[in-house]
UniProtKB/TrEMBL annotation:
Domain of life: Bacteria
PROSITE patterns assigned to the protein according to its UniProt record, in alphabetical order: PROKAR_NTER_METHYL (PS00409)
Protein known as: PilW family protein
Record key words, sorted: Membrane, Transmembrane, Transmembrane helix
Membrane-spanning ranges: 20-41
Organism: Massilia jejuensis
Keyword Protein transport carried by entry: no
Keyword Transmembrane found: yes
One Pfam assignment: N_methyl
């Protein structure tokens, strides 16, 4: 009697998947992998855009805050009251390092150049069509004190007199009330007791401008500041990058032009005070700038990196032009996202001194 042979259980369980089953499994795996890859790429791209936006907002706000802080200190000269100075016959050249022009600039806490580059040879790579802001003041701290610059070496330095005698505060000449020098030589003004030297402060002139590049030919517009520094040969300008992606800076000034000295409140807003209120003569231009008591800041910030698939078709309004028309910046049509930042900054030092 013969028996039929049956496959052993171990052999039956050892059989693999069929070719069809493997192909189906591979197809499902590829579909899942494609979905996960797409999700990962989209999330990465979204995160990159969020980071770009954060950097843009951070740079725009930082630029506004930096300008606002300096403007609030504009016209600060310690114990010296610059309203005693005569208004200069002509506007001081912003880039001039001559000591005579530095003295003339003391009467003008702020000054600006509206959409131009004439006489701005000290500003390298200035972006066309943007404004330039000049802020003049002294340091809030006394040179040589902890946390402040040293009271030696190159300046410029400013010294306000507190000595009430015939050679200083009782002198008929306002120029005896203070001293301004590129170094410590000639700073002979005295303290209240008239026996020891008065405190020294660093004299600061800052020129804010927008450059086409942060570093050479990188194509990233950047807010920069030219700082007046002195060396053994005289004075020079040091350029300091401040905020990347700042593409445009436009300014409007609140002017107190009341003939009796004003009350510190602006009754006129102008993009170019030198031409405001029918002004044409150089002396009138200087007088208008002296009446600046507030500044409205308009900053256009741009992403430093392009966004794939994006085309900027927006028009941005940055205040008004000198002729009163809207200052519209046409759509760039490029792959960079932009945002406008604005602020109105009062100038407490020049405005407060105009209050009767």
């Amino acid at each position: 009697m013969t028996r039929s042979l049956r496959p052993l259980p171990a052999l039956r369980t050892a059989r693999g998947f069929s070719l069809v089953e493997l192909l189906v499994a591979a197809a499902i795996g590829l579909i899942l992998l494609a979905g996960l890859s797409t999700l990962f790429v989209n999330n990465t791209r979204t995160q990159a855009e969020i980071e770009k936006t954060h950097r843009q907002v951070e740079n725009g706000r930082y630029a506004i805050d930096l300008l606002a802080v300096d403007l609030r200190n504009a016209g600060y000269f310690a114990e010296f009251n610059p309203t005693l100075l005569a208004t200069p016959a002509v506007l001081p050249a912003p880039c001039s390092t001559a000591l005579a022009d530095l003295h003339a600039g003391l009467a003008l806490a702020v000054q600006g150049v509206d959409d131009g580059d004439a006489g701005l040879d000290c500003l390298d790579d200035l972006r066309a069509g943007t404004d330039v802001l000049v802020v003049r003041r002294t340091a809030a701290c006394i040179a040589g004190q902890a946390g402040c610059d040293a009271a030696s070496g190159p300046g410029p330095f400013f010294q306000a007199s507190l000595c009430n005698d015939a050679t200083e505060l009782n002198s008929p000449k306002v120029t005896d009330f203070y001293a301004l020098s590129l170094d410590t030589a000639g700073l002979t003004r005295r303290a209240r007791n008239c026996s020891v030297p008065a405190a020294l402060r660093r004299y600061k002139t800052h020129l804010y401008f927008v450059a086409n590049n942060n570093t050479a030919k990188d194509g990233i517009p950047t807010l920069k500041r030219a700082e007046l520094v002195a060396d053994g040969a005289g004075a020079a300008w040091r350029i300091v990058p401040l905020a990347e992606g700042i593409e445009n800076l436009q300014l409007e000034y609140g002017l107190d032009l009341a003939p009796a000295g004003g009350d510190g409140v602006a009754e006129l807003t102008a993009a170019d005070p030198a031409k405001a209120d029918g002004c044409a003569a150089p002396a009138c231009a200087a007088g208008n700038w002296r009446g600046a008591v507030a500044v409205r800041l308009h900053v256009l910030a741009r992403n430093a990196a392009a966004t794939a698939g994006w085309v900027d078709k927006k028009t941005y309004t940055l205040g008004r032009k000198a002729d009163g028309s809207s200052n519209d910046i046409a759509a760039a049509g490029d792959p960079y996202k932009r945002h406008v930042f604005q602020a109105l900054v009062a100038l407490p030092n020049p405005a407060g001194r105009r209050i009767p």
